[in-house]
Amino acid sequence: MQKMIEFRHVRKAYGEKVILEDFNLCVEKGEFVTIIGSSGCGKTTVLKMINGLLEPDGGEILIEGENIREKDQTMLRRNIGYAIQGSVLFPHMTVEQNIAYVPNLLNSRDKKKTREAVSRWMGIVGLRVQWGVSRTCLNKAALLRENDTLKAQRAFAKGLIQENQTGLLMEARFFYAEREWTGKR
User: Fold this and answer.
1) Is 10 a member of any domain?
2) Contacts of 52 (CB under 8 A, 6+ apart)
């Protein structure tokens, strides 16, 4: 298998507080990884280091075998979908418009490609119109109420749907949670 993301002996501290010490991780092409841990354990730090928002204090991070310090940071970030907790969503837009925001920027001349991407990604992240409301409600923001789960799914889809991107976007996906989900509420 091809290594997509690799952390080698990474160290990161904020002042005196060491967040990661000798952290090693290898994510292979097509692998699905979940990062679970308590608040402050380094989940967000790991994600921010993958897309170059933070630099490690020691060790190295490789994306497709290349050290991220040697990569063009703008191109690195364009090729990684990243939806943060509490992601900014546009409340005046419909679900589809929010998800289509990035593809519209990337595919401004190809509306059909954007519509196909939105439909595909909504299915992948499990966005469905609930409670028997017809799909047309997705085009009317006032008719669609969302719970926190739906908002999180929408933000995640928005982060992933950069259709022009290859490599990490389609090959390795990172998820993290504050606590383990048991399926019970």
Assistant:
1) yes
2) 68, 71, 73, 76, 77
